[in-house]
Write a structure and sequence with these properties.
132 residues; 0% strand
């Protein structure tokens, strides 16, 4: 009986977490939501390659890690476009990254692709320090 009540409590907790996450996603702006969902698709795709590299105990150089993110090209392209739409919708313009706010969309998307591809798997293989 204790096991059944523990299982039920676990299921209720997971359902509550899923429900809260769904509510949080629903509260995002359209560009923010599109970028978040694109990032989840990209992360899911890259996780296959991350897990394989970890299982094989591969030693990856920094350049290998930067190229790692390009293994899911359509998801990366979709994410870069979604991030660009989100950033351009954001009213706070940053002048320290001219490529991120270039008038040419292809330059901006290429900038985001480079930044995203180089960063998604980095913390899976290197020590990362949280800044948030």
């Amino acid at each position: 009986m204790k096991l059944a009540s523990f299982s039920l409590a676990s299921l209720l907790f997971l359902a509550a977490c899923h429900s809260r996450e769904a509510r949080m996603i629903d509260e995002l702006s359209a560009p923010e939501k599109a970028a978040f969902l694109a990032a989840e698709r990209y992360r899911s795709c890259t996780q296959v390659f991350v897990q394989k590299a970890k299982a094989e105990h591969q030693k990856l150089s920094d350049d290998d890690l930067r190229r790692f993110g390009y293994r899911c090209p359509s998801e990366l392209q979709s994410l870069a476009k979604a991030v660009d739409a989100y950033w351009m919708n954001d009213k706070r313009k940053h002048r320290d990254d001219p490529a991120a706010y270039s008038p040419d969309r292809s330059v901006r998307v290429a900038f985001h692709k480079r930044e995203l591809a180089g960063g998604f798997a980095w913390c899976e293989f290197r020590e990362c320090h949280r800044t948030d």
